[in-house]
Amino acid sequence: MNTTDLTPEESFDIIKKAITNYKMNYKENSQVFLLWGWILTLASFSSFFLQTFANSNAAQQLTTGIWKYKGMFFLGNWFLFCLIGFIIMYFMVRKINKNKKIISHIDKFVNNLWWVTMASFFTAIFICIKMEINPPTIMLLIAGIATTTTGLTIKFKPLILGGMTFFIFCVAATFVTNEYSALIVSAAILCGYVIPGYFLKSAKE
Asked: Which helix (H) or strand (E) holds 65?
């Protein structure tokens, strides 16, 4: 079997083309990135308003009623928004995959990275509920690792910086109450997902 030795310049060109092809694909996939950015931002704001009401005097008077199950309301709020996001994403990804012409190893790596990240999110949620830990800190940490790794892989600075902001907000979330941690999450998602998503969508190949 014949093998061809590549010069450093040729190897660099191959890597550069792979990254360029990924950016071309991810410009299309950025709409999924933005979808989850806005879905989770809205879910965070909704969670903040629910927790604000739950801690109000009106809610305190209903402690013997449905609001004694307020933890289930907060969890259900996130579940509802995520369910809507998954339904929209299903049809969106089907359309994107039909139009995708090139699938590189970087595509496969990043896709696998985010599938593992999703599994980590669900595992972290279970652990937080079981150990009665406030989830935002752990969730932001996981999101920061995945987002920063993606940015470093495709060499896209806005995504790298966006991922690093998750670490900052992760620490900030430890200094606020559960109620205001929802606002920390929404700010983190806007800086880490939404803003880099728009930069990626408009990036030049």
From this structure: none
pLDDT per residue over 72-114, tens digit each?
Answer: 677 778 889 989 988 998 888 777 777 666 666 777 788 889 8
CB of 128 closer than 8 Å to CB of 134: yes
Mind giving me the DSSP string for 78-114? HHHHHHHHHHHHHHHHHHHHHH-----HHHHHHHHHH
Q: pLDDT confidence of 204, banded at 50, 70, 90? A: low
Contacts of 133 by beta carbon, 8 Å cutoff, 6+ apart:
127
DSSP state of 67: G
Distance of CA 52 to the CA centre of its chain: 24
52-56 own/partner pairs: CB under 8 Å, 24+ apart? 52/179, 55/179
What DSSP line would sit under 162-182, residue for residue?
HHHHHHHHHHHGGGS-HHHHH
Percentage with pLDDT > 70 across the chain: 72
Written as six digits, the tokens of 165 are 């902001």
